[in-house]
Design brief:
alpha/beta; Rossmann fold; 2 domains; 7-stranded mixed sheet
């Protein structure tokens, strides 16, 4: 995965993008209690700013986070100093270490815009997984990517955020645009200054059977898909939650 976020990483948490990791931490804690025992080691591919590691810091799990964005990793190291963070690509990183759990969260898998790239990431996740380990990832469906057609505006004290995009059904692909105006300190001055941050992200979705067959091709034998939003059904879900084992 390329460094998709650039300078945007500096404001990632401020703009609220770390909330998904907090929600995922709640879901994972419930998963640990249901499935037990909790993993002793966890590899977080596309870890972002380390919010998940910070949210689960009291679990005793040993975390390794990987992200292609140096800015994200820099923030993650500050937020979760007891965890290990590496600047690397989710498909290409080789740690020569196996983990009880591998994660790929916050539609990071949707950044893989070809089946070959997606399978390279799946194979790498399996490569780093213990025999009885678990690979968990989420995935935006067509319905999820279609939601980017709406223009979303969020105004806070320190920023104004615009999110919009376009979904191409024939390609099952979306161009996503994130534009923010961040208030900057202006000591001694009567006027407020704002910094513009703009980021384009490309995300792709795949049919459920295509994801499942790709996972099977990469060596996963136990595959479960459920809606991330438990009020939805799989066929109508905007985001799916996959739990996979060897």
């Amino acid at each position: 995965m390329l460094n998709a976020y650039g300078d945007f990483s500096e404001y990632y948490d401020l703009l609220g993008w770390n909330v998904f990791a907090r929600n995922a931490a709640v879901r994972l804690n419930a998963f640990f209690k249901l499935r037990g025992p909790k993993p002793r080691s966890l590899l977080d591919l596309a870890c972002g700013t380390g919010e998940l590691e910070r949210s689960l810091r009291n679990t005793g799990i040993k975390f390794v986070g990987v992200d292609a964005s140096p800015g994200m990793v820099k923030i993650a190291r500050r937020k979760a100093p007891k965890s290990r963070f590496i600047v690397a690509d989710a498909a290409g990183v080789r740690l020569h270490q196996k983990f009880d759990m591998v994660l790929l969260l916050f539609d990071s898998a949707n950044h893989m815009t070809s089946y070959s790239h997606l399978r390279r990431v799946f194979r790498n996740a399996r490569r780093h997984l213990n025999d009885n380990g678990c690979f968990i990832f989420d995935f935006l469906t067509e319905r999820g990517l279609e939601e980017w057609e709406q223009i979303n505006i969020r105004r806070k004290k320190d920023y104004t955020l615009f999110c919009y995009g376009h979904y191409y059904p024939e390609k099952m692909l979306a161009d996503i645009f994130i534009e923010a105006f961040i208030r900057q300190p202006a000591p001694g001055g009567p006027h407020e200054n704002y910094r513009r941050v703009f980021q384009k992200i490309v995300e792709k979705t795949y049919p459920l059977n295509g994801i499942v067959s790709s996972l099977a091709e990469c060596g996963f034998a136990k595959i479960t898909a459920s809606p991330f939003d438990l009020d939805e059904k799989v066929a109508q879900a905007t985001r799916l939650w996959f739990v996979c084992g060897k």
